[in-house]
Amino acid sequence: MALIPSGLARDPWFLLGLGLRGLLLAVLVPGIQETWFVPFLTETMGAPSLDPWSSFLAHGGDALSFPYGPVMLAAFLPLTLIGWLAGLPFGAEMALAGLGLRLTLLAFDVAGLLVLRRMFPERRALLTLAYWLSPLVFYVTYWHGQLDIVPVAIMMGAFHQIGKRRFRQAGLLLALACAAKFSMLLALPFFGIYLWQNKRLRSGLKPFAKAFGGVAALLGLLPLLSPGYRDMVLETPETAKLYWLALPQSEGLVIYLVPLAFSLMLYATWRLRRTNFSLLLSMTGVTFLTLVLMTPASPGWYLWAFPFLVVYQISADRAGYWLVGLFSVMAVPLLALTTVGSSLPLLGIATPVVPEILSLHARSVWLTMVIAVGCVLGIRMFRNGIQHNDYFRLSRKPLAIGIAGDSGAGKDTLAAALEGLFGRHSVQHILGDGYHKWARGAPMWRAVTHLNPRANDLPRLTENVLATLDGREAVGQIYDHHTGRFSPPITLSSNDVLVVSGLHTLLPPALLERLNVRIFLETDEELRLFWKMRRDVAKRGHDPAAVRAQMARRQPDSDAYIRPQMANADLVFQVAAVNPGHLAGLKDHPVPLKLRVLIRDSLYPERLAKALIAICGVQLDMDMLDEGRTAEMIIEGDVWAEDIGLAAANLVPNLDELLDVTPLWHSNVLGVMQLIVLMQIDENLRRRIAK
Ligand SMILES: Nc1ncnc2c1ncn2[C@@H]1O[C@H](COP(=O)(O)OP(=O)(O)OP(=O)(O)O)[C@@H](O)[C@H]1O
Ligand SMILES: O=C(CO)[C@H](O)[C@H](O)COP(=O)(O)O
Fold first, then answer.
1. What per-residue confidence (pLDDT) applies to 271?
2. pLDDT for the residue 691
3. Could you give the CA distance from residue 229 to residue 54 in angstroms, rounded to a whole number?
4. pLDDT tens for residues 230-268?
5. Counting ligands in written order, which one lies closest to the CA of residue 437?
6. What pLDDT sits at residue 395?
7. How remote is the CA of residue 605 from the centroid of ligand 1, in Å?
8. Residue 636 and residue 594: Cα distance in Å, rounded?
9. How close is the Cα of 530 to the center of ligand 2, in Å?
10. DSSP letter at 139?
């Protein structure tokens, strides 16, 4: 019991499943183990050889006895050998070797449960019911006696490791699973796509491939030198089942439907552009399930899909939960009507022949029903995987963030900070200044200011934003603040995240409607003047007096056109200097800031406030305004960028998958703003799922 966590060892459902298993493995002797697996293993122990497959065949063994590679041999030998040796003095070596084999199955069965529990720690109770008490495992492993639980448990170990970003271990375990049973190779391309598509994980591809390649070459390819291995493992009649379902074509040619379905599954996964861990599990699971549904699958094949069905079962809604249960309950009688079971030597009962209780027609109807339930399950798993794939939602439908505010309020600074979060390659930034109607010095600027919507081509800005959101390219231009001229036309492409920053971003209704996150920056006037002066004089070469005069001249338009946009925002950031009186003395030094935030119609403010206080150590006052619709937070205090990152990881559990680069967190107020925008995005994505 030392290997079993104490919580599990006290779980009555686990103990029930364990007791049942113990009973079954003590009293049942599955026919296929007695005919095939045990003779092969005992022959190997009796006449050890470096090439047990050829040696077994040379001694007249049945080629169907052990269609498995060296990993399976290594897995089963220890306990089988102990049983065999213990039984020798009493002439019970075959019986006890068989018991050793079944104890090995139990060990891997427990390992499968433990891996799943580690992968889904928050669903442990449900897992014990869904996995440990499933009739499918009882039937396939303990009554029919298949060995597939071994490669399946190892493969799940590989999934667990990749989820933990342990690439080498994942490659090693997957290679072991494949060397145990070649069919596990079907999972390999999904691992490859997952690692390739996620830029953040791409560096893991090399260690994964190296570990996989090394172990697979040693344990999967080297044995191919043995003619016996080739006969027993490669030419097993099981492989032919993959080509069993075929559509006749002309001149005797056929289209093999299982390989076709497999290729389409790979293509579908590839087309999603980015796959998160949950989708990786769904797509691999649907592929294994498809194999079961489209072939005259051996009972062991059901086990390949089984852990994925369990993962779906514990994360789906009630209907999904019962559907997996129904599939298992329906599949078992179907298998029992077509495959052999166990003998009960202690009671003198021989292995029963396959019962012919139902007519062929009735069995076909049953099979059809099992396939129907399986198909519904496959579709639901596919849909569920896609719905929970943050990246899918981002890449299919870009996420649009709009930032508005007066000149010098900090719009482009925030936009750049958001680019640092998502990575430049994932962001298309559209700057409102590129839509001014005239270049600097044009006579029209004497009549209107830049803050007047009519001085900006807002319909074109809106069209360009909508085009990129719909996946089309648009032509834009940049306003160069050094020269006061426009750049030559530039291409604006669609991307995962679209950031639109400008004076009027929250003004045109058609644009407003398509923005997922609407931000208004209302920087304190004194601070804005300070920042604007510092930037316009130093970076844009303006005269200080002219900047001051321009701000005064623009004030009425600011009140008329800029500030009212605040009403359209989900997030309002009001930034001010902690000591406004000290601004002049700061020159180029950073300004200590405080932040007032208004968060409208969102569910996360309380969680956020707790994390900001507990993890980031800020001073925070929170209040609810507008009859509880708006959360107001006043935040002060220095914050390390690392702490913002820590709070983000805490607040957004799937952060790793949402951001495919290592995010560049800022310190202090800008970092807090990044975190709040991220929370807003997270909530927006969750709402998208719920729709
Ligand atoms: N959160 C912040 N923390 C520190 N400095 C900031 C912050 N926001 C803005 N600034 C300072 O203010 C200056 C103006 O900011 P920024 O260029 O982002 O404003 P803007 O709203 O995009 O202005 P405009 O509309 O005139 O282009 C920046 O050069 C930067 O020095
Ligand atoms: O309001 C502004 C930006 O939002 C600027 O004042 C406007 O773009 C004109 O820039 P410049 O003074 O460099 O010609």
1. 86
2. 62
3. 7
4. 999 988 878 788 888 889 888 889 999 999 999 999 999
5. 2
6. 59
7. 26
8. 5
9. 16
10. I
Judge if ipTM > 0.95. Answer: yes
Which tokens hold the place of 633? Answer: 């937070």
pLDDT band at 541 (very low <50, low <70, confident <90, very high): confident
Give the pair of three-digit tokens for residue 556.
């009425």
Q: Is residue 323 a contact partner of residue 376, using CB atoms and an 8 Å limit?
A: yes
| Distance (Å, whole) CA 453 – CA 455 | 5
Q: How far apart are the first and last CA of the chain?
A: 46
3-state secondary structure string across 453-508: HHHECHHHHHHHHHHHHCCCCEEECCEECCCCEECCCEEECCCCEEEEEECCCCCC
- Residue closest via CA to ligand 2's atom 5 equals 407
Residues in the chain, total: 691
- DSSP letter assigned to residue 579: -
Q: Which residues of 602-627 are buried (b: 16+ CB within 10 A; e: fewer)?
A: bebbeebbebbbebbebebebeeeee
pLDDT tens string 596-637: 999 999 999 999 999 999 999 999 999 999 999 999 999 999
437 lines ligand 2 (CB under 6 A): no
Cα gap 353→55, rounded to integer Å: 31
Please report the atom of ligand 2 found closest to the CA of residue 450: 1
How far apart are alpha carbons 151 and 135 in whole angstroms?
A: 19
Tokens representing 323? 């559907």
Q: Smallest Cα–Cα separation from 493: which of 401, 425, 447, 438? A: 425
- Is the model's pLDDT at 548 over the cut of 80? yes
How are beta strands 479-480 and 485-486 bridged, if at all? antiparallel
Q: How far, in Å, CA of 244 to CA of 238, rounded?
A: 10
**CB atoms inside a 10 Å sphere around CB 447:** 8
* Residue of higher predicted confidence among 539 and 127: 127
**Residue with the nearest Cα to atom 3 of ligand 1?**
670
What CA–CA distance (Å, rounded) separates 681 from 675? 10
Residue 580 per-residue DSSP state: G
